Give the backbone structure.
Amino acid sequence: MFAETLGQKKAVGLLSRSLENGRLAHAYLFSGPRGVGKKTTARQFAAVLLCRHEGMNGPCGTCSSCVQFASGNNPDFVHIKPQGAMIKIDQVRALKKALSYPPLEAPRRVIMLEDVHTMRREAGNSLLKLLEEPPPDNILLLTADDSEPLLPTIVSRCQIIPFYPLPVELAAQIIARRNSSLTAEEALRFAQLAGGCPGLAGTFDIEGLLPAYEQTISRLLNPGKSESARVESALELALQAAELKEGLEQLFDLLRLFFKESMLAGLRAPDQGSEPRPMDDNILRARERWNLQQLSDKVQVIDFVAKTLARNCNRQMACEVLFLKLFSIH
Ligand SMILES: [Zn+2]
């Protein structure tokens, strides 16, 4: 059971116990960082819940329900993903309507709602009503990245299934398995850059991305003494970033992750369900160079510019704003 979910003992334990003692919640919230297996696990859980031979060894894989599930045609599995950037209120309304009918073939229906952190307040409130008065024989599986806050009222109505970053070595194994062209050393480096979230590493081999990232971090850590040197560095890096054909978004992700990791370094409580990770030298240097407020300001600058880029602003200009601001926090 949950063989595809690696290194998430707490999540797997909670789900297994739910099945073992037959006390299923009407809603589960798979919560944690991006790229650590939340959706994979939720799908596996859905398959178990829908299998006609529900047992402790996972879905049987052969009953009609399992066959339909594997081919993406199970009539009692409803799968909702963000349309564009978010789950919209119309999707939640349509879901409510669908749930007013009983399940079609199985004794219960399973609804997977991906990325509920993308919902605006209006859609969130609509979902909340559904959670407050859940129609019988329906189980909701919500997944959410913990980067964005959810309505606390939604959280309180779900059983939380927490996910954590993986130890770097395990993340490296997963990355290496998915991308056989990487050397062991590269896989380890990717795992480190992804902060132990293997799902983030899939795009790291975009041409020019990692050199641009490494150079950015190195220049930010050694910005030069004079104002004019910093401005010059900022403009050079902006030009380099804007010239990335793809991967600008990933560059932003990597930089954001770097500053967040630097904030967490030293703050992380020992028992968070994950092993302590060996720390990147640059992160140690970042912690020496910038205080928490400065690191947090840098993350905010990145978030702000990432949002303006998503609205199709001029890439070069957005990059210049980003780097000038990053260099001004020193
Ligand atoms: Zn089955």
About this structure: Residues 51-53, 59-60, 63, 65-66 surround zinc ion (CB under 6 Å).
